User: Fold these one by one.
Assistant:
Number 1:
Amino acid sequence: MRVLGVDPGLTRCGVGVVEGVAGRPLRMLGVGVVRTGAETATADRLVLIERGIEEWLDAHQPEFVAVERVFSQHNVRTVMGTAQASAVAMLCAARRGLPVALHTPSEVKAAVTGSGRADKAQVGSMVTRLLRLDAPPKPADAADALALAICHIWRAPATNRLQQAVAAHRTTSPTRTTSPTRTTSPTRTTSPARAPGTAGAPGTAGAPGTAGAPGIAGAPSTAHPTSPARTPSSARTTKGRTS
């Protein structure tokens, strides 16, 4: 596996190429720095960085490109420049169809030194030992670029296995179907207004005031005959009194 490591930066963009596989001795193929002047416009500096990275890609033909992941810093201007240089490196790799891997500084330090809090001197010392160099690469940006390449070579097998496992799980797991759309019940129609006086409405047959209602045949007031009128007492006949 041949990897180009890129430590992005506007003033100094470190680049380094390492070849090898995890578990075996690694070999450095080249290391350097792409420099731009602070007096140059930012757009022109990015063009210079692009040209420098393209030259390294042409010269070494790497299979992968490892770029340091940009993280937040207190100096916003530095973060912006680092992010812009990182984007240029990713663009150069994508243009050639090369896979790009992003590694945080903590990941790189942990992979090379065993501690995610190692300083630049410790990183440079371990890079020198791992690549069997005579002296640590200078400046520190160059050593960081080599450390990025080493980190990717060592982490790539585990990362690839994880990606393959995720891909296999997606292909074997059944597709989750969504439940069919729930249809709404048909619109409930209201009954037509009942006009007064129609069949079944008040005042029709069977309603109060019709046959069977009080005051007509069959009602209690007509069921019994009235008692005969009492004759007044003056109309009664009395026996005559004899004198």
Number 2:
Amino acid sequence: MWVIFFILFVIFCVFMIYSQMPDAVKKERTLYDELVDANIELLKSTKNPYVGMFAKEEIINLLKTISDEFDKVAVERNEVVSGNQKLFILNEIIFASGMKNKEFGIEHLHYELERYRKYGMREDNQGLIRGN
């Protein structure tokens, strides 16, 4: 008898706790979400076969790192690195990561950053999006 009462009590408590929880609210998409998704689709359109090996959050973090670090060097050089050029760099780092591993991709990023510091932007980096 006590066992049944205890089970009913537990069920009642779970029900009460559950009923107090807020309903799940779908997060509205922001302009930032749209921009991130557009950048990922752009990377996929380059036929880089390794884009899929990175989670969305990894791509966001990698692009932020590229942006922050290249902007610092750009200030030192009194230059500006466009978002388009940063996407080109991101695409190269993702490709390098896929060729070997993610650690190699990060090493390559450090190499590219030092190369930019010494010699400026690569001639072939006209950005990922190219006009006709």
Number 3:
Amino acid sequence: MVVLKGNNGYILLESLISLAVLIIIVSSYVEVTVKMQKDSQQRLSSIANYRDLYNETRRCRLHSVSPVEPQIEVSLEQGRASNRQGGILIVKK
């Protein structure tokens, strides 16, 4: 059996390069996945806020509550909706 003593360093170097490439790929995948999850959670939170504001508005319209000052304000120019009673503030970015 022939043993190539000169190639041992090259095999180690090749293994280290492969490991480095694999670590880079995995870390970039994890980074992208975490960012996508954060974006998804923000969207779900925004949808929940809009749903709460819709339900409050619907409840006020159905029961025809007439407060002294308006509790729900919607400004399309500023991209903003607020509900003073429930403390909900939705701002469109």
Number 4:
Amino acid sequence: MGKRKDLSEFDKGQIVMARRLGQSISKTAALVGCSRSAVVSIYQKCSKEGTAVNRRQGRGVPRLIDARGERRLVRVVRSNRRATVAQ
């Protein structure tokens, strides 16, 4: 766990643009106010993935049934709790 707060999307964009414009890692870190290792990791992530934005959404196992199927399943269960798949 780091001691500092997470960088905002604006700060990440500043890091990427400063590095693309030829600024050194130390000058970029001083501009944004973060560590040099943070500059390196953010720029590497951007060059590898194409973006420096966090990609947390869409993680995990995909749902097996959608919202419509879930509503239908609830309706079937309410009508007959002991129904099997064949019925």
